[in-house]
Amino acid sequence: MLINQDGLQSDGTSVLPVNLPEPLAPKPSPLNHWLKSLIILSVELLLTLPLGFVMAKLHIGGTAWILSGVVGGVLVLQGYRLLFHTNSQPNPSVRKVGQALVGMMIGFAIANSNLTQVATHLPVLCS
Questions:
Q1: Is 76 buried (19+), middle (13-18) or exposed (0-12) by CB count in 10 A?
Q2: What is the tally of structural domains in the chain?
């Protein structure tokens, strides 16, 4: 039997092995997912708390905790992307909830109608 360049015999049948479907990957355990989420939350809190205390010492006000939480979240997200080589897309629903939470926090922080403290909240309001 002669075999041509495409791996076919002279009668048209293939001599190449048949591609079998690969076995399905095992599903991740819910415990592993829960543990990974807990680790991510712990790392974010460990980054946020010291930064929040430093900003609070600078008398930035309630915005200190908002900004430190944002910085901690960004650092954890970028670290996760670098370590696990993932490129997840932002979730629009989560973004809207986050914007609502930031708006409520700023609203409660300046609710005393003392507009002299609004200047401390401008970095968050302008972002």
A1: buried
A2: 1
Answer yes or no: is 21 within a domain. no
- Residue numbers of the domain that contains 78: 41-125
Residue 1: CB atoms within 10 A of its CB come to: 7
> 80 and 40 in contact (C-beta within 8 Å)?
yes
Considering the entire predicted model, what is its pTM? 0.52
Q: pLDDT by residue for the chain (127 residues), tens digit each?
A: 555 555 556 665 655 555 556 666 667 677 777 888 888 889 999 999 999 899 888 887 777 888 888 899 889 888 888 887 877 777 889 888 888 887 777 777 666 666 666 666 666 656 5
Within-domain flag for 65: yes
> In this structure, what token pair is assigned to residue 66?
């908002």
